[in-house]
Every structure is written in C-alpha cells, then in structure tokens.
Amino acid sequence: MKLFLFLICLFTSTISFSQDSFSEIDAQQVIDTFFEGFHKGDTLLMKSVMAENLVMQTVFTTKEGENKINTEFAEGLITAIANRPVDQKWDERLLDYKIEIDGNLAHIWTPYEFWYNDTFSHCGANSFTLAKTDTGWKIIHLIDSRRKESCKI
Asked: Is 3 within the bounds of a domain?
C-alpha cells in the first residue's frame, strides 16, 4: 500500500512539473518582441505577442492640471506604426523590468524614456498584463503614464 501511494505521489508530481512553465525571461521576451516590432515598424511582429482585443490606456495630467485617462484599442497604435514616415525615429528605452507571474497571468512594469528623432520627449512607466492563451502568451492590457518632468535623463 505504501508503495502504491508513493507511486501515485511520484506520478502526480511528475505531471505537475512537466507542464510548460513561463519564466521571467519568457515574460521579458514577449515585451522585447513587442518593442522590436515597434522600433522596426514591423506590425506583424508586434501583433504576434498582442491579444486580438488588446486595450491600451494612457494616464497623464493636462497642462491645466487635470488628470486624464485615455482608452483606445491597439489598432490605433498598429495603424500609427504602419503609417509612420521613414524619417521619424521613435525610440522607447526601457529602463527596467519588474515581473510577477501567477499561473496563466503575468504583470510586467517597465519604466521608460521616449525619444523622438534622438530628442528626449517624455518619460513614464508601462504596465503590461499578459495572459496565456491557446496560441501562447499575449499582451491583453497595456497602460502607460506620460510626463515631461521628474525624468532621470
């Protein structure tokens, strides 16, 4: 009987650990793929890590001091990237990755600086939510902050 229970426990633990695991390195690779496409203007590469119904939000303070939240779907970004003039360089420099993973959910926080044609534009932080789908890990939500002051440049 003890042997039987031992074998069941061994079999169960083997199945549990043999499932695909998603690491912090994997999560960072999803974000890096997104930005590789962003910088190259490769919308297909970007879409490869984006959920079909990805919601994007931006939080900011207006010149008048009013706090705003802007919400849109990712197609607006994809269209902007696809139509970006070749003489424009958009360079979002990620400064760090803070990653948390629980089962089929991951959260990645990335402070950044944004440079337009090699001139500093603004800074802030991105907050990515990833979920495991039938086609792999995808970005399902992206919210970022944007400011021009208190940036470390």
From this structure: no
pLDDT tens digits for range 19-74: 569 999 999 999 999 999 999 999 999 999 999 999 999 999 999 999 999 999 99
Rounded to whole angstroms, how far apart are CA atoms 151 and 124?
8
pTM for the predicted model, two decimal places: 0.84
Provide the b/e sequence for 114-147 (b: ≥16 CB within 10 Å).
bbeeeeeebbbbbbbbbeeeeeebbbbbbbbbbe
The verdict on residue 2 lying in a domain is no
Number of Cβ atoms within 10 Å of the Cβ of 58: 15
- Asked whether residue 130 is assigned to any structural domain, the reply reads yes
Q: Hey, is 33 helix, strand or coil?
A: helix
Alpha helix locations (H) across the chain? 2-18, 24-40, 43-47, 75-82
Structural domains of the chain, count: 1
Domain that holds residue 122: 23-145
